[in-house]
Write a structure and sequence with these properties.
The protein is of the alpha+beta class. The protein has helices spanning 21-26, 41-46, 55-67, 74-88, and strands spanning 5-15, 28-37, 93-99, 113-119.
Amino acid sequence: MGHDVIHLRGLEFYAYHGVLPEEQILGQRFLIDMDLYSDLRQAGASDRVGDTVHYGEVYQVIRACVTGDNHQLLEHLAEEIAQRVLGQFACTSVRVEVHKPQAPIPGIFRDVSVEIWRKIGEQA
């Protein structure tokens, strides 16, 4: 198998994750980037959505993870996304990056993010 990948970039959601009580009450923007590793040769040959990972359905799973339960840590949210996607779609591995651009840090910064890589069958 080669290095076939489907990229989902800049998925933006408003949610209530964080350690501080204000984050759990006020909420903030979160951005998700995800790479789905899967053998895409069959889809390339057939031109049928059934032969690939349906990224619209993956989006819905990510949205449910981000806007569902609140988490204190970005690491926990990233892990939930990775495990749910690996469990529901024909991916061999995923890369999940959770961005928190308005993290409560006293200073000037562009972004804070957590990135994890997980393979099928691998647990946290």
